[in-house]
Amino acid sequence: MGHYVNFKEELQQRTDYAEEVIRRWLPEERGFSKTMAQAMNYSMCAGGKRLRPILLLETLRLFGGDEKLAEPFMAGIEMIHTHSLIHDDLPAIDNDDYRRGRLTTHKVYGEAMGVLSGVTLLNYAYETMFRAFELTDDKDRVIRAVRIMAEKTGIYGMLGGQSVDVENDGKPLEKDLLDYIYEHKTSALIEASMMAGAVLAGADEEQTSMIEQAASDIGLAFQIQDDILDVTSTSQELGKPVHSDEKNNKVTYVTLFGVQKASEQVRELSEKALAVLDRLYNKNEFLTELVMEMATRRK
User: What angle do CA 280, 75, 241 make, to 5 degrees?
Assistant: First the structure.
């Protein structure tokens, strides 16, 4: 990875830190509702790349924000993301038995608890993010960050993308519809992470919208790379079944354009995102490397 010799080490440090933050903000497993908390924590502690919390923190660092303030949002975005995975895996949607190399939530706790723990995680994300009010006198930043999270998660964001994806499952899609799904299903939460980090650190509107633009391209590149890996990787390397897109008759960038063209798109989108970040006065070298890594990753 070029000049950033210890990128892998640096990433590992940040992943460990994100992991520690996430675990600190999880619900306690006690009382009558303890099974629910266990189901929530089972899926929250299943590993994963923790990219969204890391992107949030690194964008906050880019603008020189207070890192303590990032914590409830780092935990919150991962809760929102994980809730979407639990629900994605349900029999009613993708019917997947394995994720991140182990049984999915509904396989362990049953379908009803899968539905409930997903919804509860989504709500707990907001309970957690609202606790940021205790950490700062700048209430306005917190309000703006929570609002971004809410909008990017809801009908005009990730969940809207999920619904359009489910509705068109197995149908032939045009590129514009596929782009809509990717922009909402994947980019929206990457945008939420980076924009929230920026806003919490005091970035102005122009800076925040540049971050949104970069994050949108990063998210799309990330999702297309996902399509490519589904075809070119092995189950072992990926930690989840490969060729699942094909099995589910899913239209992806690879089915539309083939691996090579899809790879070119990934490169173009990443370069576009890096060019936007480059126009910012502030710099965060690790963030730049991370964006490149996301587009060239093998899992």
Answer: 95
Residues 6 or more apart whose CB falls under 8 angstroms from that of 196 comprise 56, 73, 77, 145, 148, 149
Do the Cβ atoms of 146 and 126 come closer than 8 Å? yes
Over residues 259-294, the pLDDT tens digits come to: 999 999 999 999 999 999 999 999 999 999 999 999
Domain extent listing, the chain: 7-296
CATH number belonging to the domain at 7-296, selected among 3.30.360.10, 2.30.40.10, 1.10.600.10, 1.10.10.60:
1.10.600.10
pLDDT, one tens digit per residue, over 3-62 is 556 899 999 999 999 999 999 999 999 999 999 999 999 999 998 899 999 999 999 999
User: In angstroms, how far is CA 71 from the centroid of its own chain?
Assistant: 16
N- to C-terminal Cα separation, the chain = 16
pTM of the complete model = 0.95
Give every CB contact of residue 265 below 8 A, 6+ residues apart in sequence: 221, 224, 253, 257
